[in-house]
Amino acid sequence: MKIAGKIAGVDEAGKGPVIGPMCVAGVRINEDKLHLIKELGVKDSKKVAPKKRELLSGRIKEAADNWFVLDVSAHQIDELRTIMTMNEIMVICHAKVLENLQPDHAFLDAADVNEERFGRNVQKKCQTPATLRVTARHKADARYPIVAAASIIAKVHRDHAIAALREEFGDFGSGYPADPKTIRFLQKWFSEHQSFPDVVRHSWKTVDNVIASAKQTTLSAYR
Predict the structure, then answer these.
(1) Which candidate, 25, 24, 26, places its Cα nearest to that of 105?
(2) Confidence bin at 177 (pLDDT 50/70/90)
(3) CA distances, 179 to each of 171, 186, 198, 213 (Å)
(4) Residues 63-72: tens digit of each pLDDT
(5) Alpha carbons 18 and 15: distance in angstroms, whole number
(6) What are phi and psi of 146, to 5 degrees?
(7) Dist CA 75 CA 85 (whole Å)
């Protein structure tokens, strides 16, 4: 008789923003109960409305055997980026999540242009049994319900973190570099404080651009 293995999915929310943490979530369930996740109709968190994401997040946690979210603050990302690339940070974070979940087979949303390389690197970093199988794919949240489930938990978790930061710092928009509201927030904050709070990723090019723009504006005022 085949023994059901422990299946896990891992995905992140907040890799790209200049403000706020990155949240890497994992969900684990026995293979013979995977239908419980599929029956929820989970899909890529970006394609699910916020209220439905909240509902699904709770139901996923109820159905899962285990789940875990790794919070990586903006300050931690800045520190790590002094010694490694963002892709290497992603490898370490995925490995940490898997160490907490201890699955037999993990499905990952590949954070590298080379999905097989990403899977191999995560597997090497994991302090887990050598029998761990890792499958890393681009857009894994659209291909594997267990990764979609992790995507939803990661997104809801980060949304809560961002809501708390807005309470503290005011409305800074989405926190993404392409958001004009985010850029205006950074410009105003730097103008008033000549620095940025720890919740901002100082190692992002966006921050360099804001500082350079402020200096240019100051120089223009003296001409």
Answers:
(1) 26
(2) very high
(3) 12, 11, 19, 17
(4) 999 999 999 9
(5) 9
(6) -70, -30
(7) 15
12, 111 Cβ separation under 8 angstroms: yes
- Domains detected in the chain: 6-166 (3.30.420.10), 171-221 (1.10.10.460)
* Spatial separation of the C-alpha atoms in residues 72 and 21, rounded to whole Å: 5
Instruction: Give the residue among 206, 149, 220 at the shortest CA–CA distance from 20.
Output: 206
Mean pLDDT of 189-217: 94
pLDDT tier at 129 (50, 70, 90 boundaries)?
confident
If DSSP codes are grouped into helix, strand and coil, which group holds residue 11? strand
Query: Which one, of 11, 18, 12, 23, lies nearest residue 160 by Cα?
Result: 23
C-alpha to C-alpha distance for 186 and 180, rounded to whole angstroms: 10
pLDDT in tens, 36-81: 999 998 876 677 888 999 999 999 999 999 999 999 999 999 999 9
* Cα 6 from Cα 56, distance rounded (Å): 21
**CA atoms of 4 and 57, how far apart (whole Å):** 24
Q: Are 13 and 22 in contact (CB under 8 A)?
A: yes
Asked whether the predicted pLDDT for residue 219 surpasses 80, the reply is no
Query: How far apart (Å, rounded) are the C-alpha atoms in residues 78 and 60?
Result: 32
Task: Tell me how far apart the alpha carbons of residues 93 and 151 are, in angstroms, rounded to a whole number.
Answer: 14
Residue count of the chain? 223
Please tell me the predicted confidence (pLDDT) of residue 1.
35
Read off the pTM: 0.91
| Torsion, CA 87, CA 38, CA 42, CA 162, rounded to 10 | -60
